[in-house]
Amino acid sequence: MLLEELKTFVAVIEKKNFTRAGESLNISQPTVSLHIKHLEDELKASLLVRANKTFHITPAGVVLYERAIQLLHLAEQTKEEILWQHNEVSGILRIAASYTIGESVLPEILTRLHYKYPDLHVEVAIANTEDVEIAVREFRSDIGCIEGSVQAKGLIIQPFMEDELILVAASGHPLTNIRHPRGADLQTSHWVMREVGSGTREYTDYLLQSIGNVKPSKTVIGSNEGVKKAILCGLGIAAVSIHTVKAELDSGKLVQLKVDVPLQKRIFSTLYSPLMAAKKHVNVFLEELQSK
C-alpha cells in the first residue's frame, strides 16, 4: 500500500466526498477514484459501497481507515525523528483545546513557541472537552488541552496549570449591590452558561447543585466569548474561568460575586496518545506549557 493512496482514502472518509477529498489533496477526482480502486484490488475487499453520489464505508473500510491514520502518523513521526537528528523542529502540530484554554491560555504560549521554533506550524481546533478527547483518540489532533474530567483510558493525561472558577455579573447588576448573595438570590437570577459537555458547564452544574439543586432560568451559549458578552450586556450571571474575564474584572466592567458556596479550583491538563509521546512537536509544546 502506498502512503499517498492511504492519504486519499482517509481524505475521502473525512470529507465524505471524492471531489472535496481531491481538492484537499490537490489531485483530480479520477485520481482519487484510482487510488481507492488500487487499495481495493490489493486488499481484495470492497472498502466503499457507492450509491448515486454518496457512499457507505464497509467493515473492511473501517478497519483500513483506523490503521491508515496510525500508519500515516507513524510515517510522519519517522520523518520528524530523522529531522530531530539535525535539531530541526518543523512541520505541523495539531492541537485540540477546550474553549477556556484555546481562547485565553494558548495564545501567549503559542507566541513563545513560534519565536523558538519558527518552522513549526500550529493548527488549533477549539471544541468542548468531550470533543477534544474524541479528536485525540481519532488522531485528528496530536495533543489535546482540556478542562474538567474525562475518561482518559488508553491516553496519557498530564496537568499543567490550575484554574479558578468564579461567579460574575456586569457592573450595575442587582446582585453586585449585595455583599454576600445568598443561595436564594442565585436561585432566582437568570444564568448564562455553556453547553453540556464543556468543563465550565460541569462546574456550573456543580454550583447549582450546591445551592439547592435548582434549575434556574437560563440561556445556553456555546462559547466563552458569547457567555462573557451576554453577561456584559446584563443578561444574567455566570460561572466562568478567571482567565477568561481578567481584563473585564480589572476594568470594572464585570464584578466577582462573593458567594457563600465554596468556589472550585480545577486543573488544566494535556491529553495525548502513547503513540504521540515520542513526537518532537508534542514534546516541545509540553515543555513550553510547563515553563509558563
TrEMBL record:
Pfam families: HTH_1, LysR_substrate. GO terms for molecular function: DNA binding. Gene3D superfamilies: Periplasmic binding protein-like II, Winged helix-like DNA-binding domain superfamily/Winged helix DNA-binding domain. It comes from the Bacteria. InterPro entries: LysR_HTH_N, LysR_subst-bd, WH-like_DNA-bd_sf, WH_DNA-bd_sf. Residues 1-58 form the HTH lysR-type domain. Keywords: DNA-binding, Transcription, Transcription regulation. Belongs to the LysR transcriptional regulatory family. This is DNA-binding transcriptional LysR family regulator. It comes from Sporosarcina psychrophila.
